[in-house]
């Protein structure tokens, strides 16, 4: 019914919005989620067809500026060395994610205390621990218990196969005496909650046709909808409305036909990711919030952290069949995760071992990086790479800096005329040093593993702004943070933010397991306080 | 190129441009010495570009025409009429001076080439989509982790 009031209105049906929707459903409140994209049909994912490598680079391209689906919004990232990548639809960016799922470390929540930089979080690892576990079992996470780099936990499903390439790298790390472990992965290796196990297809980044990758559309959404949450697709929210008591009254949105609606709500939860959330808040201006909603601190959009990414490629003599298996999940090394100031930088990075490319990916990458020549040498060079190369990604902790930010572009808009986000980002000296260190250590690891040739790819990689964090940080001080320690806006007491925007620091690992644990923790905090939620 | 030359034809290129393209494709990926892998000139690269990347055809036409014009200017005859060594040297020269020259053609060529059944079979990949059959990947030897376990906890106390 038009402008009927709902109890809870969630904007965004990605990793965090889906988790919160499921968690709050048990309250039996009336919950509606508005999502600008639609449902994906896994039967249409590229890996179901012979031309899958062509399609992967088009309609499933990670950049919305290249992909240009009607449900995407453009992002001006021309002033950033790192481009923003995402997906807009039910499941959000998890439709394309690699599902590499390492948790933040306890130290990640205490960087000011331990290393004198940035700020501590108002919560810690052990507060989140039960929510990590709840999330792992809800969506289906595989891994091997006993990793000495992280507090003990038991992933519900057996680890992803390492293959010969994982063993080869493991031997290399052993040679150097470094930490390594099979990665926690949001991919099911056994049937789980009615979904079937991973078939090692490879192209998880183009959507998983098998349904083994635990994207939010097929993990949380069926659970949330069964529990009574209403998900409205093709609804793009323009702004959150407020009254003169600084309470959110609902949202204004456009439906699939471009018709404008207002949806009233008692509580508004924003889950549009570290770029979409500040964009929506900055677009929500009013007399009481002329600089954007919930922005009296001036920090909405600031402190954007992107995890600058390095890459080292090793070429091996023996066939490793490295092109098979989940592309982004195999093993990791956290030897350089914790701070050691002798390295010339603070904080650290994760080394993520990823599979070699498929045929087209190998050939295109080889040509672009000069490893495959034109002419006679083509076939030999291709054979040296295909199935015999291993990739080592370096995920650097990015520290919060206010000048790295999301603003509104003065000209660029989406198809509904809503101002689009603009990214201003520069790489810090700390990140530069960390990337260089990681590249050197990655090359050392490849050599120890027996690589006959090692390529240190210039970094940061451009098409690698996968992790969007920090643009509406949490904290106890309303002057220095946007939301409190349980996700509620300091300025608007019935507005909650639950995605990576609330991160105080970025850790040195892929963030989605931590994003979902934080979202479940915020939902739980809301449930604990239902009687006095707005006090 | 006069556009009327291709009116009435299904091809987005003139006959001359197609001849130059065939030679260039063979320079990018020639047939393998054992004959198992075809030359890129023998897979339908032009069909692929027309269907998948039609927006790049204008650039391609320009590059093919430029190659032919350079051949005439330097050697007095069109690219197709040159002998293999001279063609190769000409292409090498232009690419050295303009590293972006025909780069997107090369990328499109391998994109088409490595989705061709004959090529996939020759490189040991079954010519089928990944789904639904999938692939086998060995789980891996977990005893390799013994030294890591032995070293013990490495996470930092807070
Ligand atoms: C190619 C790729 C690979 C990745 N690999 C990994 C990985 O291996 N491991 C990992 O941890 N992370 C990975 N990530 C990141 C991961 O996907 C994100 O961290 C995660 O999805 C973020 O969750 P979220 O809920 O914050 O936002 P999202 O999942 O991005 O969801 C936000 C949703 O909000 C919707 N929305 C935005 N604005 C509006 C609006 N105005 N109105 C209505 N709806 C709106 C969007 O359409 C979208 O569906 C990857 C991402 C990509 C793109
Ligand atoms: S490798 Fe596994 S998770 Fe990835 S796309 Fe294939 S079946 Fe899905």
Write up what this structure looks like.
The complex is a heterodimer of chains A (535) and B (158). With 535 residues, chain A is α/β, with parallel strands linked by helices. In chain A, helix 6 (163-176) packs across helix 11 (429-449). Helix content of chain A is 24%, strand content 16%. Chain B has 158 residues and is mainly alpha-helical. Chain B has one domain (3-128). Chain B is 49% helix and 0% strand. The longest helix of chain B has 19 residues, at 57-75. The mean pLDDT of chain B is 93. Chains A and B meet through helix 2, helix 6, strand 3, helix 9 and helix 10 of A and helix 4, helix 5 and helix 7 of B. Iron/sulfur cluster binds at residues 187, 198-204, 208, 210, 212-213, 326 of chain A.
Which bin fits the share of residues in helices of chain B? Answer: 40-55%
Number of domains of chain A: 1
Measured between the Cα atoms of the first and last residue of chain A, the distance is 30 Å
Gross geometry of chain A: globular
Number of strands of chain A: 15
Proportion of residues in helical segments of chain A: 10-25%
In whole angstroms, how far apart are the ends of chain B?
71 Å
Give structural attributes.
heterodimer; A: 6-stranded antiparallel sheet; 12 helices; globular; B: 158 residues; elongated; binds flavin-adenine dinucleotide; binds iron/sulfur cluster
Annotate the secondary structure layout.
The complex is a heterodimer of chains A (535) and B (158).
Chain A: E1 5-11, H1 15-25, E2 31-34, H2 52-56, H3 64-67, H4 111-115, H5 125-139, H6 163-176, E3 181-182, H7 220-226, E4 230-232, E5 236-242, E6 248-254, E7 260-270, H8 273-283, E8 309-315, E9 331-333, E10 349-354, H9 359-368, H10 378-385, E11 389-396, E12 405-413, E13 419-424, H11 429-449, E14 453-457, E15 495-497, H12 512-528
Parallel strand pairs in A: 1-2, 1-7, 2-4, 7-15
Antiparallel strand pairs in A: 3-9, 5-6, 6-7, 8-11, 8-14, 9-10, 10-11, 12-13
Chain B: H1 15-28, H2 45-52, H3 57-75, H4 84-97, H5 103-113, H6 117-122, H7 146-151
């Amino acid at each position: 019914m038009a402008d009927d009031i709902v109890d809870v209105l969630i904007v965004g049906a990605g990793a965090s919005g889906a988790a919160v929707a499921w968690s709050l459903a048990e309250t039996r409140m009336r919950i509606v989620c508005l999502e600008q994209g639609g449902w994906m049909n896994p039967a249409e994912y590229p890996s179901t067809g012979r031309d899958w490598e062509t399609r992967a680079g088009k309609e499933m391209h990670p950049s919305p500026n290249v992909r240009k689906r009607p449900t995407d919004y453009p992002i001006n990232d021309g002033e950033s060395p790192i481009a923003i990548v995402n997906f807009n639809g039910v499941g959000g960016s998890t439709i394309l994610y690699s599902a590499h799922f390492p948790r933040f470390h306890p130290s990640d929540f205490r960087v000011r205390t331990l290393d004198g930089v940035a700020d501590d979080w108002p919560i810690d690892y052990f507060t989140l621990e039960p929510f990590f576990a709840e999330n792992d079992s809800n969506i289906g996470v595989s891994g091997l218990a006993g990793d000495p780099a992280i507090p003990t936990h038991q992933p519900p499903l057996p680890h992803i196969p390492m293959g010969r390439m994982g063993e080869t790298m493991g031997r290399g790390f052993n040679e150097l005496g470094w930490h390594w472990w099979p990665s926690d992965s949001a991919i099911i290796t056994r049937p789980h909650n009615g979904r079937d196990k991973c078939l090692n297809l490879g192209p998880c980044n183009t959507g998983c046709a098998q349904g083994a990758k635990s994207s939010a559309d097929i993990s949380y959404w069926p659970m949330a909808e069964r529990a009574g949450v209403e998900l409205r697709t093709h609804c793009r929210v323009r702004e959150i409305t407020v009254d003169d008591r600084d309470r959110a009254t609902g949202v204004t949105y456009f439906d699939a036909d471009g018709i404008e609606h207002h949806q009233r709500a008692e509580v508004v939860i924003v889950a549009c990711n570290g770029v979409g959330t500040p964009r929506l808040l900055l677009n929500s201006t009013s007399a009481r919030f002329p600089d954007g909603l919930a922005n009296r601190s001036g920090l909405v959009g600031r402190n954007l952290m992107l995890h600058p990414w390095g890459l080292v490629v090793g070429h091996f003599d023996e066939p490793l069949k490295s092109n098979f298996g989940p592309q982004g999940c195999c093993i990791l090394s956290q030897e350089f995760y914790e701070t050691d100031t002798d390295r010339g930088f603070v904080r650290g990075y994760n080394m993520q071992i990823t599979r070699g490319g498929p045929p087209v990916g190998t050939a295109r990458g080889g040509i672009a990086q000069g490893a495959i020549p034109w002419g006679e040498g083509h076939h030999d060079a291709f054979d040296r790479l295909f199935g015999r190369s291993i990739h080592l990604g370096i995920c650097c902790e990015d520290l919060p800096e206010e000048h790295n930010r999301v603003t509104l572009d003065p000209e660029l808009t989406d198809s509904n005329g809503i101002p689009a986000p603009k990214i201003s980002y520069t790489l810090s000296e700390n990140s530069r040093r960390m990337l260089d260190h990681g590249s050197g250590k990655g090359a050392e690891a490849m050599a120890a593993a027996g690589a006959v040739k090692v390529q240190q790819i210039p970094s940061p990689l451009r098409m690698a702004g996968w992790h969007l964090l920090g643009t509406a940080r949490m904290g106890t001080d309303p002057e220095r943070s946007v939301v409190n320690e349980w996700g509620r806006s300091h300025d608007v007491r019935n507005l909650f933010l639950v995605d990576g925007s609330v991160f105080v620091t970025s850790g040195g690992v892929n963030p989605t397991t931590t994003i979902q644990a934080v979202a479940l923790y915020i939902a739980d905090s809301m449930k604990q306080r239902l009687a006095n939620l707005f006090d | 190129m006069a556009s009327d030359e291709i009116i009435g034809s299904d091809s987005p290129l003139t006959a001359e441009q197609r001849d130059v393209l065939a030679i260039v494709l063979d320079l990018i990926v020639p047939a393998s010495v054992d004959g198992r892998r075809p030359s890129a000139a023998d897979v339908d690269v032009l069909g692929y570009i027309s269907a998948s990347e039609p927006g790049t055809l204008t650039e391609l036409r320009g590059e093919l025409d430029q190659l032919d014009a350079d051949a005439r200017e330097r050697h007095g005859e069109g690219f197709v009429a040159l002998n293999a060594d001279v063609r190769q040297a000409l292409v090498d020269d232009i690419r050295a001076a303009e590293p972006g020259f025909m780069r997107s053609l090369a990328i499109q060529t391998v994109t088409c080439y490595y989705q061709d059944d004959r090529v996939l079979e020759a490189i040991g990949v079954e010519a089928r989509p990944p789904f639904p059959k999938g692939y086998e990947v060995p789980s891996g030897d977990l005893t390799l982790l013994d030294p890591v376990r032995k070293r013990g906890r490495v996470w930092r106390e807070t």
